[in-house]
Amino acid sequence: MRKNIIAGNWKMNTTLPEGLALAKGLNEALIGKALACDVVIGVPFIHLATIAGAIDTAKIGVAAQNCADKEKGAYTGEVSAAMIASTGAKYVILGHSERRQYYHETSATLKTKVNLALANGLTPIFCIGEVLEEREKGKHFDVVDEQISNALFDLPAEEFARLVIAYEPVWAIGTGRTATADQAQEIHAHIRQTIAAKYGDDLAAETTILYGGSMNAENAKDLVAKPDVDGGLIGGASLSVGKFLPIIEAF
Ligand code: 13P
């Protein structure tokens, strides 16, 4: 079902005590507030259980930032979707451009990860987005279409309906250079059309599509005001309650 969501992606930041303090601080800041969006925090693996046990997870969903592409077994250092689900986490960020770029994740691997996440009751927040060169060559629409179709379009409609999509132009991540609200709207509408062409208008209209890339308290209002922008996936500005809260309140 289509929802407004503001999700933080802490990436590889915060020790466990720091992360716990941040999560508790956010939890406290949201007490008694009527929110117009769901709130999610994507935390390091080792924080998952502690944070899920320390906050109101009905109010703040907890997400992992990755999961293994194997179910279980002799894969030293990996963390499975089942393990993530067992901590109380409800979401998993998959296909982030940093995972694609630095850890060589391909659509084939991501397809497996998405299936395992869904099979274990997790909601994948599936990231797509073009690099600067692709945007400058006008290829961004093709790039996102390919990323979606290669990893996701083998899913039956009822499984696809459980996903959240996050459009994150790589040139906007951590650079301070946000896509304009019009640029975000243009490509979000395109993504929705691509989904409609495969699964039909109703499912496309029910799909949550987040924007990510240098989203902050200043630009959040304009971005979420766009009809096809259903919220955000926020990196840097999710690392302090003072910066994250105004984005949550942008709805
Ligand atoms: P920034 O908000 O720091 O640009 O990061 C965006 C992002 O990559 C969220 O997944």
Mean pLDDT: 97
Reported for the largest beta sheet, the result is: 8 strands, parallel, barrel
Task: Indicate the radius of gyration in whole angstroms.
Answer: 17 Å
Low-confidence stretches: none
What is the CATH level 1 assignment?
Alpha Beta
Give structural attributes:
15% strand; 42% helix; 12 helices; binds 1,3-dihydroxyacetonephosphate; globular; 8 strands; 251 residues; TIM Barrel; alpha/beta; eight-stranded parallel β-barrel
What do you see in this structure?
This protein is an alpha/beta fold and 251 residues long. It has one domain: Aldolase class I (TIM Barrel), CATH 3.20.20.70. The protein is built from 12 helices and 8 strands. It has helices spanning 16-30, 48-54, 81-86, 97-102, 107-119, 132-136, 140-152, 157-160, 181-199, 201-205, 220-224, 241-248; strands at residues 5-9, 38-42, 60-64, 91-94, 123-128, 164-167, 208-212, 231-234. Strands 1-2-3-4-5-6-7-8 form an 8-stranded parallel barrel, surrounded by 5 helices. Helix 11 (220-224) links the parallel strand 7 (208-212) and strand 8 (231-234). Helix 7 crosses helix 9. The longest helix has 19 residues, at 181-199. Residues 9, 96, 168, 173-174, 212-215, 233-237 line the site of 1,3-dihydroxyacetonephosphate.
